[in-house]
Structures are given as C-alpha cells and as structure tokens.
Design brief:
Structural class: alpha+beta
CATH class: Alpha Beta
CATH superfamily: Hotdog Thioesterase
Strand content: 35-45%
Oligomer: single chain
Helix content: 10-25%
Shape: globular
Number of helices: 2
Radius of gyration: 14 Å
Number of domains: 1
Number of strands: 7
Distance between the termini: 27 Å
Order of helices and strands: EHEEHEEEE
Largest sheet: 7 strands, antiparallel
C-alpha cells in the first residue's frame, strides 16, 4: 500500500532512519508494516551482524507514528493545520521475548491504536518474525 519513500515522507526522521519498507494494511485502528532489509550496512541500528531486541521498540514506534500520520491525513483540509509528527512520549509494559532469529526473515510490525486525540496517541505494538513474537508493549506518542 505504501512504499519506503512514501513512509519516510510521513515520519519525522526522514529516509535515513526509516526502518519500515512497506505498509501491508491499515485502517482507523490498526497498521501492519514490514521491514525486509534491516540487516544492511545502511541500517544505523544494526551492529555486529545483529539487531538487538530492544531496537524493535524503535521499529514499532515508527509503525505507530506512521499510523498517527495516516490518521491525521484523513482530517478534512479545512480542519487540518500543519502536519504534526508523533514522537515517543513513554514506553510501557515492554516484553522482549525472543531475539531476532534470522536476518533474512522480514520483521512484521503491528500497532493497534487504543486512543488518538490532538495531543497524541496510545498504541499496543508487536514485532514478530513469522509466527514468533519478538517484542510487545505499549507506546504513548506525543504530537507537537
């Protein structure tokens, strides 16, 4: 649905720090993204041939922030002001369940929006490879 360039345009980091390669699906409450190329020399978070599990929080935050930006784009233009990027305000109840097992298997990011208002949003997030859940938790996003 969205490719890496379209995603990067909606995230505050821009293309250099965009960890998402594609949006698989999204609606008013959910987004499902994929990262296909995390094990590359261009990924600044990939170190010594491995992606540490804690870094998956950033991947999930990008999925949630992207969802917030997509929701904002649905606001009728007469009500919409400048686009407001979403930033991590807090991370809650994070469980790092398994390490990234295979650098050749895509990482799936799923975010479920529990609350969204003009100040930010709350998301439950999951990062997984195939059926293995690697990380789950809750993110609170602030929008400035």
């Amino acid at each position: 649905m969205l490719d890496r360039n379209q995603i990067a345009a909606l995230l505050p980091h821009g293309k250099a720090m965009c960890m998402l390669d594609e949006v698989i699906s999204w609606d008013a409450e959910h987004i499902h993204c994929r990262c296909n190329h995390f094990a590359s020399d261009t990924n600044p978070l990939f170190e010594n041939g491995q992606l540490e599990s804690v870094i998956l929080i950033e991947f999930a935050a990008q999925a949630a922030g992207l969802h917030a930006a997509l929701l904002q784009s649905l606001v009728p233009s007469q009500q919409q002001t400048e686009p407001r990027p979403a930033y991590i305000g807090a991370v809650k109840n994070v469980e790092l369940l398994k390490p990234v097992s295979d650098n050749d298997v895509a990482i799936e990011l799923k975010a479920h929006c529990l609350l969204n208002n003009s100040n930010g949003a709350i998301y439950d997030v999951i990062a997984q490879q195939q059926e293995d859940i690697l990380m789950r938790g809750r993110l609170i996003l602030n929008q400035t």
